[in-house]
Amino acid sequence: MLRLHSHSSRSYPGRPVRFAPPLGGAPLMATCRGTKIHWSEKAFREFKRRVKELTGRSWFVSMDYRYKELAEYLRGWMNYFGISEYYRLIPEIDQWLRRRLRMCYFKQWRWARTKVRELRKLGTSLHTAISVAISRKGPWRLSRTLATQTSMRNDWLKDQGLLSVKELWVHIHYPATAR
């Protein structure tokens, strides 16, 4: 039998406990109550920094390569932090990722005539495609327009190779055998 003494000055219910990260990874956090485990703020900042690097506007690589690198990173991150029961930010991460990739397409297309041609291929009307293409707004702002979101739909991005963080999280927490 272990004879452990608790110090009331050091521990109390609800105090965050950090788990040691393996191989220099960012730590997970849990409360002493044991209600939820979620990633730390530092880990989330590092995740966003890395995703911004992979979906950066000045990284001129093919979109296939970008999707491949992003999928590799997302799978690794979710396999490590998938233990987290914190779901609230997962749909927001998905929305942010899709917007980042729409921005990459706008940056890649560069010229107005290319934007019009590509938006028309995706089903946008000519007038809407022209108004978006000649806009003075930047790629990040244009990635949120209605024309962009209706032409580069979520299922289209998925067909291009984008992984959904939400689906990865669901597969970890609710395996196919339990569904």
Give the neighbour order of strands across the main sheet: 1-2-3
Counting helices, strands and paired strands, the structural category is: mainly alpha
How would a crystallographer describe the biggest sheet? 3 strands, antiparallel
In the residues, how many domains can be counted? 1
What are its keywords?
179 residues; mainly alpha; elongated
Helices and strands in order, then pairings?
Blueprint: E1 16-18, E2 28-31, E3 37-39, H1 41-54, H2 63-81, H3 90-109, H4 112-121, H5 126-133, H6 139-142, H7 146-151, H8 154-160, H9 165-173
Could you walk me through the main structural features you see in this protein, from its secondary elements to its overall organization?
This protein is mainly alpha-helical. The protein has one domain (44-173). Helix content is 54%, strand content 6%. It is built from nine helices and three strands. Strands 1-2-3 form a three-stranded antiparallel beta sheet. Helix 2 packs parallel to helix 9. The longest helix has 20 residues, at 90-109. The protein is elongated and about 75 Å long. The two termini are 41 Å apart.
Quick recap:
Helices cover 54% and strands 6% of the residues. The chain has nine helices and three strands. Mean pLDDT is 81; it is low at 9-14.
